[in-house]
Write a structure and sequence with these properties.
By secondary structure, the chain is of the alpha/beta class. The strands form three sheets. Strands 5-6-7-3-8-9 form a six-stranded mixed β-sheet, with helices on both faces. It has a four-stranded antiparallel β-sheet with strand order 11-12-10-13, with helices on both faces. Strands 2-1-4 form a three-stranded antiparallel β-sheet, with helices on one face. The protein starts with 11 loop residues before the first strand and ends in a 23-residue tail after the last helix.
Length: 323
């Protein structure tokens, strides 16, 4: 494996990382690159390995194999050097209950440079936080906003955010996500770990989906969408042998409800769609660009049983390698 560089300007580089807890292999050869000035979404269901990877990035855990660099530093060897330079928000941030919101900002300012107290006040005002209220009296959403304000006020070059919108109301959630776009526009980088697909789709430049400890899809969001087609159609006779135009599709994922079929396949040319639409065995053919949710489902869920799975196959047919 090639060594991970330290002076290449890449905020986060992960190469071939593995992590095991007892017999449970949580991460299996994970590769991840976060680019400068990018909102990068790390998506996956609970237990996929997102939290473990984030904790490796800040040096709370040590990888069993592979290499990690965060802002050019190995977090396993120099965890405090990493934490001094990044903004990290855990999914369950710890705050002193006896402090007021104002005191949280005062306390955190001891770890940061000039201007932090004023920046904290601005973020607290944006989040409509009551400055004189103690943390123990805050709602879950208000606690989350207080933790967010303490991280964002430092204006670090890299933000690592684990489920950052948990507990936020819809309006504040939308404003917060938009602020991540503004931060990336300043040249800083944001890595958001989440399972809220619809939320991050609005702001993410780059998406990595992790499933059962492995990266199953990774790339710029626009390229991932452009590289796939979501095809839907109706089978006039679901028990008949499917036409060649269907059997020849390289199916990544599919589902069938009654006679209605939905398939995610590699991007199709207009000629393929027209050929399928002209087939008398099918109707209501539609081919659209998939959403991030469509991609997420396709790469993390098993492929459903399709009508032609039980039909005789013609010689030489290609049925794809869907999950």
């Amino acid at each position: 494996m090639e060594p991970v560089g330290t002076e290449n300007g890449i905020p986060v580089e992960v190469r071939g990382v593995t992590k095991r807890f007892g017999r449970n292999e949580v991460l299996r050869g994970v590769d991840l690159t976060v680019r400068p000035g990018c909102v990068h979404a790390l998506l996956g269901e609970n237990g996929a390995g997102k939290t473990t990877l984030m904790r490796l990035l800040v040096g709370f855990l040590r990888a069993d194999g592979g290499a990690i660099r965060v802002l050019g530093v190995d977090p396993a060897r120099e965890p405090f050097a990493v934490r001094r330079r990044i903004g990290y928000l855990a999914d369950a941030p710890a705050l002193y209950d006896w402090m007021t919101v104002r005191q949280v900002g005062w306390f955190c300012s001891a770890f940061h440079g000039p201007g932090y107290p004023q920046a904290f006040v601005r973020w607290a005002e944006d989040f409509h936080l009551p400055p004189a209220t103690r943390v123990r009296a805050l709602s879950k959403g208000m606690r989350a906003k207080t933790a967010l304000a303490s991280v964002l006020a430092a204006a670090p070059p890299l933000l690592l955010l684990a489920e950052p919108t948990s507990g936020l109301d819809p309006v504040v959630r939308r404003e917060f996500l938009q602020s991540m776009v503004d931060i990336a526009a300043e040249g800083r980088s944001v890595l958001i770990s989440s399972h809220q697909v619809a939320e991050v789709e609005r702001v993410a430049d780059h998406v990595t989906i992790i499933h059962e400890g492995r990266i199953v899809i990774d790339g710029p969001l626009d390229d991932l969408k452009a590289g796939h087609t979501l095809v839907s159609f109706t089978l006039h006779d679901p028990f008949a042998v499917p036409p060649p135009a269907i059997l020849d599709l390289a199916v990544r994922w599919g589902e069938c409800q009654g006679r209605s079929v939905r398939l995610l396949v590699p991007a199709l040319g207009a000629g393929v769609v027209e050929s399928l639409a002209a087939d008398p065995a099918v109707g209501d053919v539609r081919a659209v660009r998939p959403s991030l949710e469509d991609l997420y489902v396709a790469f993390t869920q098993p492929r459903g049983r399709l009508p032609w799975d039980r039909a005789p196959r013609r010689e030489g047919a290609v049925t794809g390698t869907g999950r």
